[in-house]
Amino acid sequence: QGKQAQHRAAPTPAPSSTDAGGIEEKMNPAPPNTDTARATAKQGGAGDELSALFNEFSLDSSSTFAEARIRATFYPKFENEESDQESRTRMIEMVSHGLATMEVTLKHSGSLFMYAGNRGGAYSKNSFGNIYTAVGIFVLGRLFREAWGREAPKMQAEFNDCLEKNRISVSMELVTAVLGDHGQRPKDDYAVITAVTEFGHGKPQFYSTPELIKFCRAWRLPTNHVWLFSTRKSATSFFVAYDALCEEGTATPVCKVLGKIADISVPGSKDHVIVQGEILEGLVARIVSRESSVQMGVLRDFRQRSLDGGRPL
Length: 313
Known about the structure:
This protein is of the alpha+beta class. It has ten helices and eleven strands. The chain folds into two domains: 83-108 and 224-308, no CATH class; 110-222, D-amino Acid Aminotransferase, Chain A, domain 1. It has helices at 34-56, 84-96, 117-120, 131-148, 152-166, 209-219, 232-245, 251-261, 272-275, 291-301, and strands at residues 14-17, 23-26, 101-107, 111-115, 122-123, 168-175, 190-198, 205-206, 226-229, 264-266, 282-288. β7 and β8 (205-206) form a beta hairpin. α2 (84-96) packs antiparallel against α7, α6 (209-219) runs parallel beside α10 and α7 (232-245) packs antiparallel against α8 (251-261). The longest helix is centred in the first third of the chain and has 23 residues, at 34-56. One of its GO terms (molecular function) is RNA ligase (ATP) activity.
């Protein structure tokens, strides 16, 4: 009395023609319930759309890559590891042995603003898209209008193209009362170029000061006042003058004294006294190549019109 196996006849495949002229076997299922068919079709349609959407973003591991670029950079922070006297002694000795030249510039009292063109972006305060970058872009546009007049839009567009094509970042000290006072409210809103960097395809290359001045003069951008000290006597005299003036010295007497003791002096296109005032935040001293003295001597003899309404430089 074992259980008798039950057998169910399988559906018979119905032949159908194919585009290739062969025979394709397919099942003839029973007609589905109408409501069920509609729901299935709806779900299938949504699924197909979602699948197609994901396919657009599918990644091919053999051809997909990511590229990171540095668009702006500036000099390292001031060297504070050694004592002040150790830094002075080392700088004087390097100048004395003909290994370097000491360069001194004015410290305009503002905020660091870095610009790499329309596509490269604008950066300040270790960020972008903030009030500092907005003001920086506005002031930069104003500088072009002051320098180029009716040609300003055309020249600024060419400037942006130049930065993008050559992967250049321009750093500047942005001075404006809108962003807060630094000891004294500036008399004008302006910027002074402090560094120009080419990124290329390797380590960023900073322009030397002569190269920076040439770049700025080509685009009529503001430059800083620069003094060079290439002998032991002049370098030592600078530190003596600094000690005497560091507490109460203002822009006019400081610039006069440095002009007398420096081996080479190249005035900036923005006069600190005219655009910011007499209160001077400080001086920046650094070691540069000996070639700077020769190149700066040529630039010193090249007369450039003032960008602050003063006499030609």
